[in-house]
Amino acid sequence: MQVPEDYFSLFSLERRFAIDKNALAANFRALQKENHPDKVAADDEQAKLLAVQKSSLLNDAYATLKSPLARAGYLLTLQGVDVEGVSQDDLDMAVLMEQMELREKVAEAPAGEAGLAVLLPIKRDIQSRIETREQRFVANLEADDLSSAKRVFHELQFLHKLFQEIEVSEEKRLGY
Fold this sequence. Notes:
Blueprint: H1 7-10, H2 21-34, H3 45-66, H4 68-78, H5 93-107, H6 114-142, H7 146-173
């Protein structure tokens, strides 16, 4: 396995937000099989270390591209954008207010299984907002408007976090 230019080329995918997830999974499995550390179990320590590093790279690359949020951040990083650094320009007050309102709705949901009926439409609403933001992210990225793409990326981070918190709340209400 050659050192890839980026994670997309590693899996023979176009460098863009919308990817063929089936091709990603198939290419990952093929590369994982081809580069599995067990294939060099009888080799010297350097070969074993290299195999573990390749396997780790494959796992990191797959996890990054499989997750839409991580993929968005990675695409920005490839464009030289620091997605870790957040400034006031990256956070819109309307988005922060939106987050507070959504969190209040979640907090007001009744305890136990009765709250599930309240959480479901909130969860659907958040999923819809995520899809809308992803479309906006793609449009900004294609227009080479990286500052707007970064702003939308941070909005997506908020929405994904809230979505995950709702899923955890649902699991707790169901006793998982």
